[in-house]
Amino acid sequence: MRPRIMTVYGTRPEAIKVAPVIKALEASEHLDSITVVTGQHREMLDQVNTIFGITPDHDLDIFEHGASLSTIVARVLERLDPVLVAEQPAAVVVQGDTSTSTAAALAAFHRGIPVVHVEAGLRSGNILSPFPEEANRKITSQLAALHLAPTATSRANLERESVADDDIVVTGNTVIDALLMTVEKKAPFSDPALEHLADSGSRILLVTTHRRENWGGAMEGVGRALARLASALPSVQVVLPAHRNPVVREAVLPHLEGLDNVTVTEPLAYGEFTRMLSLATVVLTDSGGVQEEAPSLGKPVLVMRENTERPEAVGAGTVKLIGTDEDRIVDEVMALFTDQGAYEAMAQATNPYGDGSSAARSVEAIHHVLNGGPRPADWQVGATR
Ligand code: UDP
After folding, report:
1. Which listed residue (79, 155, 210, 310) is catalytic?
2. Highest mean pLDDT range out of 169-178, 306-315, 346-355?
3. Is 190-347 the same fold as 4-173+354-371?
4. pLDDT digits (tens, 9 = 90+) for 354-377
5. Rg of the Cα trace of the chain?
6. How far apart are CA 86 and CA 103, in angstroms?
7. Is 367 a catalytic residue?
8. What number does CATH give the domain 4-173+354-371?
9. Quick check: CB of 273 below 6 Å from ligand 1?
10. Hey, where are the domains in the chain?
């Protein structure tokens, strides 16, 4: 019998990043795939599963509006345990740094099931930022048996924390697999306003914001900065797919009412989002995944955070950390729209995060550990297969 690999995930970014791994597991001759969603996010998670054609085998259905982090973790622990006992997987795959992934890793660890950590070794160096993700990812590193690091930098972070060299494989980031599987399909926009905007050929400022440590005053400042930018750059269209979290909406959206060149939408389905990313002139975000995707499409990214666990694209020059100060956001965005030289310096396609084969490498690494298959070579920037 082939070892069964259980992938557990619960939020939109995890769903996007595990989808290529699940697809590769499903196609594997050596391993079987079983999937569990926790439902930490609800609609945004289901949207991604639909796009990739994934029907979860189990749904822990933990979602509740305004649930605390502790409630999320407690529910995942409680509801995943009987599924682990019933299904007896040979390994559990978790992704990244959400409360779902750390709780799932702990539940598997409690049952003596090896944990495979996809996107292992990211570190901002500040336990409070991003919160709670930096702590989550460190805890998962303590529990994991196999660490699938996206880059050489993340491998080095793990080695510094005494993770054994042999237990790490550099795979690249599976988000690039997901992006490449999706972007070329040029999904139609379900909102006619976006289709119209795409046809107009206008320059686009694409904005996403949701980070918990920016909730409150900082996010209000983001809303005010966007309103100022929309007025100062009337020929630019600002597109904001608003995160479902009401805390985010209440802070940002009131500032944007009545502005003709601002389009606020529901979260875009992944296919639509990647198309909007390919149409965007500049990307302003506090998202982790968007910081990884946009450089692959040659889009300058301004990151509204003080630090990042993704230094590679900052080093390559396509990503700039600008913090959340309102005036700074306005100045940095204005510079990219008004100074051609500044724009061109940042707008170079670079792939520091992957070549689209990260899921295949991840599955090979699992096959290596469980079945003694060949160990994949570490991925290096510029290498393709
Ligand atoms: N994304 C999406 N629709 C949107 C906004 C973002 O599909 O309206 C995707 C985006 O392409 C990226 C992921 O969601 O892959 C990022 O999710 P998020 O910013 O919520 O989380 P983070 O990456 O910061 O953990």
Report:
1. 210
2. 169-178
3. yes
4. 999 999 999 999 999 999 999 999
5. 20
6. 18
7. no
8. 3.40.50.2000
9. yes
10. 4-173+354-371, 190-347
CATH class of the domain at 190-347: alpha beta
212, 228, 249, 328: which one is catalytic? 212
- Looking at the whole model, is its pTM more than 0.85? yes
What are 78-127's pLDDT values in tens digits? 999 999 999 999 999 999 999 999 999 999 999 999 999 999 999 999 99
CA of 22 to the centre of ligand 1 (A): 19
